[in-house]
Specification:
The radius of gyration is 22 Å and the shape is globular. It is about 45% helix and about 10% strand. It has a single domain, classed as Cytochrome P450 (Cytochrome p450, Orthogonal Bundle), CATH 1.10.630. α10 packs parallel to α14. With about 400 residues, it is an alpha+beta fold. A five-stranded mixed β-sheet has the order 1-2-8-5-3. Strands 4-12-9 form a three-stranded antiparallel β-sheet. The termini are far apart. It comes from Sphingomonas baiyangensis. Pfam families: p450. Keywords: Heme, Iron, Metal-binding, Monooxygenase, Oxidoreductase.
């Protein structure tokens, strides 16, 4: 009888509920594992992933609980993404969203005046004019990339205005945003170093803009606001770059993903699109619903500062928790028929796409305004975006967005 050769030890099976896997978002197959985590109570520990061990907080109620305890679940202790800081390779670039109180409070207050209701009123006409120009320049009946021609262009123009950035070079902001927000780059040492180079390029460019505004009267742009504040005037170069990255990614990737979701999502739910086309008064609620349905940032990370218990799970000090907004916004116990767009959804505003608590997105009003105006101007022109091919999605568990979306415009 032949002797069987010894078999190599089987590799540890991958956790099917490891929702940090990039392919889940690239292929839009993240729904099932999150649905299972929610069915199990919304909390799950993954021991082995490309980002190391972490807790998934995937249901609405426990996520809000964690966000409501910023001293116990810190943004500063480990950063805001599942990717860990790598000593000797990475450079710490502090940003106020990844700070705890009290420093977070002072820096957030510095930029908050750029997003007040009065500032939104001041910017509305300009946003509407620029949106109209872009829409009027689009072809009817010819396929084009909605992401590039509409979503990126509108958000990049807005960023250029917020920063008083040279208009003709505004696509640099898109380039830097794409590099800064790509969490997958940390898995490749060469790409990790390339990103660092681009971030320093970004910082050097903005340092020139900063220097040009020193000793000048205040102006309503973010750089001037930083210069004329006690909390941010004396930032070192790394903190300066960190906060720039935060504002660029926050203002670019998030709004552009929701603008693309408007075209893609309403194409998937034509009955809802017909309601919106028939009744423009539904636009404000539709904007909230589209943001909920898309959830442009899949997660933010928190790090436990002490041993604690969360719904019966023992969380140890130093362990990281991923707050999966993308899953909480599909929590069936909060949002009925959660995977569908329902533009009249009565609780659409309860979505967590902007976060919750002290770290709730400071630019939420501006994002809502930009998307609302896009829907209004599309309606005025009776324009409909018809999806003409499969979207190319971002392959990452942080920015939940799109690289391309072929569409063809028609009139209704």
């Amino acid at each position: 009888m032949a002797t069987l050769a010894p078999q190599p030890q089987a590799a540890q099976a991958a956790d099917p509920l490891d929702v940090s896997r990039a392919e889940l978002y690239r292929d839009d197959t993240w729904h099932a594992p999150f649905r299972e985590i929610r069915a199990r109570g919304g909390i799950h520990r993954t021991e082995d992933s490309d980002f190391g061990p972490y807790w998934s907080i995937a249901s609405y109620k426990p996520l809000v609980h964690v966000e409501s305890l910023p001293e116990l679940f810190s943004s500063e202790a480990g950063g805001i993404t599942l990717a860990d800081f790598k000593e000797g390779t990475d450079v710490k670039m502090p940003m106020f969203i990844a700070m705890d109180r009290p420093k977070h409070t002072g820096q957030r207050r510095t930029v908050a005046p750029a997003f007040t209701p009065s500032e939104m009123a001041r910017m509305t006409d300009d946003i509407r004019r620029r949106t109209a120009e872009i829409l009027d320049g689009l072809p009817i009946g010819t396929t084009f990339d909605w992401v590039d021609r509409v979503s990126i262009e509108l958000t990049t123009q807005m960023l250029a205005i917020l920063f008083d950035f040279p208009w003709e070079e505004r696509r640099k902001l898109t380039f830097w945003s794409d590099w800064a927000g790509d969490i997958e780059l940390v898995k490749n040492e060469e790409l990790r170093q390339q990103r660092l180079v681009h971030m320093f390029e970004c910082g050097s460019y903005f340092k020139r803009l900063w220097d040009a505004k020193i000793d000048k009267p205040p102006t309503p742009d973010l750089i001037s606001m930083m210069i004329h504040s006690d909390a941010m005037a004396e930032m070192d170069q790394y903190e300066f770059i960190g906060n720039l990255i935060l504002l660029i990614v926050g203002g670019n990737d998030t709004t552009r993903s929701s603008m693309t979701a408007y075209a893609l999502g309403l194409d998937q739910f034509p009955d809802e699109r017909a309601k919106l086309e028939a009744d423009p008064s539904l636009i404000p609620n539709a904007v909230q619903e589209i943001i909920r349905w898309q959830t442009p940032l899949s997660h933010m990370r928190r790090t436990a500062t002490a041993d604690t218990e969360l719904d019966g799970h023992a969380i140890k000090a130093g362990e990281k928790l991923a707050l999966w907004y993308v899953s909480a916004n599909r929590d069936e116990s909060v949002f009925e028929d959660a995977d569908a767009i329902r533009i009249e959804r009565p609780n659409a505003r309860r979505h967590l796409a902007f976060g919750h608590g002290i770290h709730r997105c400071v630019g939420a009003r501006l994002a809502e305004l930009q998307i609302s105006i896009l829907l209004e101007e599309m309606g005025k022109r009776r324009l409909r975006a018809n999806v003409a091919g499969a979207p190319e999605r971002v392959a990452a568990c942080f920015v939940h967005g799109y690289r391309k979306l072929p569409v063809e415009l028609s009139r209704y």
